[in-house]
């Protein structure tokens, strides 16, 4: 049974943010350490505020052992209300999902978080009154539908004076200027124009205040169907081809309406297909990509693999890890999305055609594909500010319904689809395939994904620019305090101090160099494959008479019997996508040029940092990618100090030890989960898990599978 | 047709098997006595050693010509299309003939001549001295002695002459024990852990049948536990699945009965046999040979092949072994059936985890020499050096290398060597170019006189160790005898692309971070030199005249690193292409030569390349 250490009654109070109110609390809560099913843990106080659920123990008060990477807003034992995924109660060893009204109160509360943490709180030693209050409080505040205005965002914005000057390199795309600058940057301004038609949201509440359309599209036609059927500009390629998106007309319409719609669309297509516009290629994403429902289902299954209650669960899933991974279908969806993005890039880059992405709302898969295409094709989008501007352009201002898609308000589970996470997962694949091409690290992507659930930033808490505008101004009339000034997530200093911010920057990133055309051209030429044949006549070779005729196909049997199987010499005509993909991959990479991900099955990987970071069993002491990073940082520091030394020698300056403290000094034995879990050393693994997998298989089955399996008595070796 | 070429066919197409657009290059195919050579129209050469060829297959005639597929033991698969069927047939028959070797003396190692002095060749064989290695471990000592029982291979033909046994194991005990062990492979020392005074011992299965026992064997095990002053009990690890071990009892073999041996703890660890491993790899290769493979097909294929699970099982066994020694200070006796496959895997991986010496370039050579070569892993049978029983072929050593690779992936700072080193060793285990891996045991190698007639691989590798250095290696990470604790969750086992798709260039990333780091290290060295140079200059100037600071710079500093932490400029030195991918070597010890003319061609075109090939051939 549980060994109770006498808890020291010590008053610990939660650290509250401006506008944060303590709603309920419970003392003597026992938080299990997530490990090998043991009952180790700590006592403390569980509180629920209008912002978060927090567990406070003695350790959280002490300042020693300050982690190197810490979120200033959300602590190690804090769960924002929006971050709660599901809450389970344990009743007599049985787990039950907790929603809404409770009749009985559980002994243990298990909270699964959207950032994949799992908390186990034992309430057995807590006063009954407090249990009732805290459990119903937590369930009510985190799991029941609520009004937009009840989001902590608003309490925080009105209580906290927003002093950040907002001077951020990120382009917010909330002004006409921003759009014009973007047009100019991409040289799209010849054929496209930023329009003010939607000022006052005259066209549609779903469209941003300002957006860009082809110059030939008239204001009337924009107004005609609330912006439906209008190609909206996303980005222009260096060759002038543009990526466009369009929200389609609803499909189930009566004949006459759809006839007029069709006529309208034909007119639009006609105007934007003739010169100076490039040929137009349309792509209906709702039919060429997995449905939103599929994406949600896949992600739900996928995340389940990582929401592990205890060590036993972990090893249970480990036994059939690869097939479990397969059954979720999540990685395959990532592959299909990447493939689609490459197809679009091919049209733009090589076929020189405009691509028009079509979707019912043009704010879901359109956002994923258009962002991904830009990350692949525009090196600006691979810088931090460029990527952030891209998110602003395509998602925040572009009108992705974050509120509904993340289900922040618990209004309807059906609307929930992790599209933004899908984008981050796809970008992560690129980051890990081409680390030097990105200014940011995977840690940046991870904390960005975590920020989806931190309601002090407005970035991910509105469905559209219109919704944000109306919420801001509407409230201001009542409070008389002027319009709210929300924080943006792009101000990373709100969440992290400079030391932690360093982890978001990629030390291997090289900024775009001044173009040195002559050099690059020769380099490329050198690697071009020669496909043309030298036209020499085939000489007949002399026959060597002394070789006997052989007939057996098999010389040796080391690897396989039917190698012919490997060779699927398909006679299908080579399609342009494949040629494009192959020829790009046969050339050296220009990290500041087009970047195409590899999409062979083995190349699509699990984003370990995001998904495995809280699982102690996945930890490696002194290993993992962090070991590589640490070494790189060490090297860079060495370079830096050498550089300093050299400068000193030059200027004969008296050496003043300007030694920056290296971030990861003595990092030889860092945990691979760094910078996230700061877990104690664990036993490395269960006593002897070998061959447990075999127990799952029938021995007979094994024999059948293996036609070479001789009977075990002949087990030579 | 040059007389050095046995055959020459022009207008041959080489297809890229993974290219989704069915790309191909055209060129000329040559056959030499030792190699197959393809030179494409841009003078890129592909060399394939006949010994590497595993399978040659003619596919049905197509409109373009006659397809010929060659699969190699190093997982290269080449797909030629030959315009005339007659030529294809000739090549096919010649290859069948050439790639089949009946006698050891016909292997490449006996004709390979890198033009080295005889003294150097002899010195090369002396590079690795196992008695030095045992001394390094701390034996012989009070508890362990060198036994001369097998000096003339009288007790066990497949063991080396020099064996280390517990001090209390007398000759009668050794002889008795060896008679009770399959193939006479009685328990001997494999690794001795100085600090824990615990030992890894190895042997083959006992001939226990259903009830047989052997007092000498029991004494032998007792002697092993007594040789460990810090712990009275010892572990006996049977690396086979329990079912296989039980089945062996019917054949008069089996496993130790815990009741008969005092103070032993018996444990099965369930590594499958060579046949399961062989077919598992076949399945893996089939899955990974698919064009445009989807994630789901890959994952399900990976699961059903079981390959990574087998790798995991091997590492799990090593981890178990290591824990017994490092945590409990207990000695461990490891065996499987004959004690030359799974036992070699587990003992060598265990030692690698325990002792950081084996994580250095030299140490790894010693480890292979000790646990694989000297203890008689049947390289010849397993790698099919001669035309033999296909059922004896199994990728046991490949598994070992793959396990090591997985460890290097988990601990990027712990190993002095990199992936290229492992790949190069794998290459030469199959190439039969050097004497080290020929034959099945030491006795056989002595009979073949490999030390007199062939070259050793190790000095060649050591010579070019710059290529095999891991730029991330941190010697401080692994002080002497530091334990490596791998995580064997399935998640951590990855598909080894650079092994199985080593030659499929279209499957490789264009550039690795490691290359970047190597570059950075080089630049650091350059900077250090600059400083020295500057210091010297300053001194010199100060000596000459006491004037103002030196403003000029002797060599403009590399611009790349002016403003860390982000490089602000692209480093001109960094190769943006993959021609320097280190795994593709081209040197004396490498018979793959290079597919990249850019890398080694000496400006002159075809003629030189051909001469190159000729030079090789006459060697």
UniProtKB/TrEMBL annotation, chain A:
Main location: cytoplasm
Superkingdom of the organism of origin: Eukaryota
A biological process from GO: phosphatidylinositol dephosphorylation
Annotated Myotubularin phosphatase domain residues: 173-611
Subcellular location: Cytoplasm, Myofibril, Sarcomere; Sarcoplasmic reticulum
Keywords noted in UniProt: Cytoplasm, Sarcoplasmic reticulum
GO annotation, cellular component aspect: membrane; sarcomere; sarcoplasmic reticulum
One Pfam family it belongs to: Myotub-related
Gene3D superfamilies on file: Pleckstrin-homology domain (PH domain)/Phosphotyrosine-binding domain (PTB)
Similarity annotation: Belongs to the protein-tyrosine phosphatase family. Non-receptor class myotubularin subfamily.
Protein name per Swiss-Prot or TrEMBL: Myotubularin-related protein 12
Organism name: Columbina picui (Picui ground-dove)
TrEMBL record, chain B:
GO cellular component: cytoplasm; nuclear envelope
Single GO MF annotation: phosphatidylinositol-3-phosphate phosphatase activity
Positions bound to substrate: 273-274, 336-342
Sorted UniProt keywords: Coiled coil, Hydrolase, Lipid metabolism
Active site residues per record: 336 (phosphocysteine intermediate)
Protein name: MTMR6 protein
UniProt similarity note: Belongs to the protein-tyrosine phosphatase family. Non-receptor class myotubularin subfamily.
One Pfam family of this chain: Myotub-related
InterPro entries in the record: Myotubularin (IPR030564), Myotubularin-like_Pase_dom (IPR010569), PH-GRAM_MTMR6-9 (IPR048994), PH-like_dom_sf (IPR011993), Prot-tyrosine_phosphatase-like (IPR029021), Tyr_Pase_AS (IPR016130), Tyr_Pase_cat (IPR003595)
Domain of life: Eukaryota
An annotated GO BP: phosphatidylinositol dephosphorylation
PROSITE patterns: PPASE_MYOTUBULARIN, TYR_PHOSPHATASE_1
Residue span(s) of domain Myotubularin phosphatase: 124-500
Coiled-coil ranges from the UniProt annotation: 510-544
